[in-house]
Amino acid sequence: MTDRLSLTQAVALDAADPLRLLRNDFLIPTFKNSDQVYFCGNSLGLQPRGARAHVLQVLDKWSHEAVEGHFTGQAQWMTYHEQVQAPLARLVGAQPSEVVAMNSLTANLHLMMVSFYRPTAERPAILMEAGAFSSDRHAVESQLRFHGFDPATDLVELGPDEAGGTISMQAIERAIEMLGSRLALVLWPGVQYRTGQAFDLAEIARLGHAQGAMVGFDLAHAVGNLALRVHYSGADFAVWCHYKYVNSGPGAVAGCFVHERHAHTQRPRFAGWWGHEKATRFKMGPEFIPTPGADGWQLSNPSILGLAPLLASLELFDKAGGMVALRHKSERLTAFLEAMIRARLPETLEIITPSEPQRRGCQLSLRVSGGRERGRELFDYLASVGIMGDWREPDVIRISPTPLYNRYMDVYRLVEEVEAWRGI
């Protein structure tokens, strides 16, 4: 074993990590009186220590001020959601007016498709990846049926053309060009949830727009993982959740992006009073006048208790120096995991996530030699020794070294335990 893959090197890398102290800002689950090795930030991020204080602040304000809490103090509820706009915009690479925290991911996806999927008999098709997260597919299929179109012909699912189940940009380009004037919407992930593959969002947006289609992204596995530049991608819209890499709690309030070129357009939408322009919202008039920007797609007043943990988490992203600094660590941490697997476990684990850093986030998706049964055995073994990954059917173990709180030593421990399991 080379020095760069040794225990000594893992310890040295952790000691030299400028972001190492951020781990102290999170509550790490325990296993037999020690920290659990947690690689499941792609499913549910860990709790920021500051989240409790933000939630208690809301509860205390409610208990002491009741309805007046909407109007008093710096953390007043009337403008509470505006506190997250600037840090959220920094996180995703957007203008503050282009982002809003609201609802859940799939609810936001439906709201966006109401506005940006406007099919005609000549242009009905939606393009997405085969094997997309089921909620996205359900939403797309139901939208097609709602508009009177047949998913069998108008939902186009692009399958993998690369080893391991990934999709080349050339395949995406061919599919978009082939659909041409039939294409109404490209809905694509920032990171594919099962394979961990990341995509060139700006190029996909350019290709879709060249055919006259709208382009939207599901960034559930990309936000808080990649150094995104959503505004500069040119996407018409994007949606995401905050309970994964953004560490805002189970079922956390979600996020939405609408490009500024749509800020003042009267696009069709499902409207609600919180999307009405702020100056006249409380006049309760019958005419809907949308707030310019992403705020204009809000429906009801936001969940203050839901926004409080998000505010706590966003403070930590700023404390880290933003996604550029976190991405630098992430690339090194994931590369360390990849190098150890290839050096010590080549006959045990197959990495299906692309090797190129620009084509992946922190997640490596792994298949175990011997098929699904052996894969499940390894997954259960790891859980039994305090290492938490994520299982996705039919046969993938997802391991996500998250730069906010994972260490090189965590990666080393994982590889050691796989070796121990292999020797049983």
Summed up:
The chain is of the alpha/beta class and 424 residues long.
Could you please describe the fold and organization of this structure?
The protein has two domains: 3-49 and 322-423, Aspartate Aminotransferase, domain 1 (Alpha-Beta Complex), CATH 3.90.1150.10; 55-318, Type I PLP-dependent aspartate aminotransferase-like (Major domain) (Aspartate Aminotransferase, domain 2), CATH 3.40.640. The chain has 13 helices and 17 strands. It has helices at 7-16, 51-65, 85-92, 105-116, 134-146, 151-154, 169-179, 201-210, 230-233, 304-319, 323-344, 372-384, 408-423, and strands at residues 26-27, 30-31, 34-35, 37-38, 47-48, 99-101, 125-129, 155-158, 183-189, 214-218, 237-240, 255-258, 349-351, 364-368, 387-388, 390-392, 396-399. The strands form five sheets. A seven-stranded mixed β-sheet has the order 6-12-11-10-9-7-8, sandwiched between helices. Strands 13-14-17-16 form a four-stranded antiparallel β-sheet. Strands 1-5 form a two-stranded antiparallel ribbon. Helix 1 runs antiparallel to helix 13, helix 2 packs antiparallel against helix 10 and helix 11 packs parallel to helix 13 (408-423). It starts with 6 loop residues before the first helix and ends with a helix.
